[in-house]
Write a structure and sequence with these properties.
Order of helices and strands: HEEEEEEEEEEEEEEEEEEH
Helix content: under 10%
Strand content: 35-45%
CATH topology: Jelly Rolls
CATH class: Mainly Beta
Number of strands: 18
Shape: globular
Distance between the termini: 42 Å
Number of helices: 2
Largest sheet: 8 strands, antiparallel
CATH architecture: Sandwich
Number of domains: 1
């Protein structure tokens, strides 16, 4: 009997150690966009971040993934910098704060951000200067995001190049420094895709990035991911955790752009985010 109890106790401990957690999710079907453009669903409110010129985010049904979906967009601009001194336009939601204990941190624990995504052609024109960032894993200002997903102007077949990039202390921490492409493919506007981006920050060659689209692993990277935090002697501004953002972030000289999201899921398990 004692051996059986010990075996059960060990099994229980193993199950608990391997338990997975869905930290945050949003389907938008019962969401409300507040006066400050923050979004509330259930008991959670997700902050809204903007600069330059932006359109108010909207919840929409026609063309949604299911029920209601969320769209972010930025309009045409003719001057740079903008009235607030910024050379970029931003319309983004914070899905995970960098200060959150569950955020991607340098603890050898990969976190997974899942989301349905599409480019909305009615509000989008081909960018003329680089890509439009749609998802960021951000680690502090004035640093470039160490992991981000963007799209570029479509090719002759109407396919938009879609990439996931990363930077670390070796590439350089600023926008314009060299970056490493984790994934490169194409997507079609007005078509929904399911993404899962897994990020495990690491500064001792023990970091990892994985990306799945529609259930297929399309890119992986192992090595240094992110910047050594300032608290550990790293560059000034480098935080201990990464903020997860989604929306639109583009140079002001680019034309209008609009994208849409649905079924946000942030967890410590691919299966809970897929």
């Amino acid at each position: 009997m004692q051996e059986i109890l010990i075996t059960l106790a060990l099994l229980s401990t193993s199950i608990l150690a391997n338990a997975s957690t869905l930290f945050y999710s949003a389907t938008f079907d019962s969401a409300v966009i507040n006066e400050d453009n923050s979004l509330t669903e259930g008991q959670i409110t997700f902050p809204f971040a903007q600069n330059g010129s932006w359109n108010n985010p909207v919840l929409f049904a026609a063309g949604s993934y299911s029920g209601l979906s969320l769209s972010n967009s930025v309009p045409a601009t003719t001057t740079s910098p903008g009235p607030d001194g910024k050379t970029t336009d931003r319309s983004e939601y914070h899905w995970v704060e960098s200060s959150d204990v569950n955020s991607p941190q340098f603890n050898q624990d990969e976190k997974f951000f899942g989301f349905n995504f599409k480019i909305v052609s009615a509000g989008s024109q081909p960018p003329v200067n680089g890509g439009v960032i749609c998802v960021q894993f951000w680690q502090g200002s004035p640093l470039a995001p160490p992991v981000w997903m963007d799209v570029k102007a479509p090719n002759a077949q109407g396919q938009w190049p879609n990439r996931i990039w990363m930077q670390n202390d070796q590439t350089g921490q600023m926008t314009g420094d060299p970056s490493i492409k984790v994934y490169g493919g194409t997507i079609v506007a007005d078509t929904w895709y399911r993404y899962v981006i897994g990020v495990e920050p690491g500064y001792n060659n023990n970091g990892r990035i994985d990306c799945w689209i529609n259930g297929q692993l399309v890119g992986s990277y192992t090595g240094n991911v992110g910047y050594l935090p300032q608290s550990l002697g790293g560059v000034a501004g480098a935080l201990n955790g990464m903020m997860v953002k989604g929306g639109v972030y583009r140079s002001r000289i680019n034309p209008p752009f609009s994208d849409a999201f649905d079924n946000i899921a942030f967890s410590d398990s691919y299966n809970l985010s897929k």
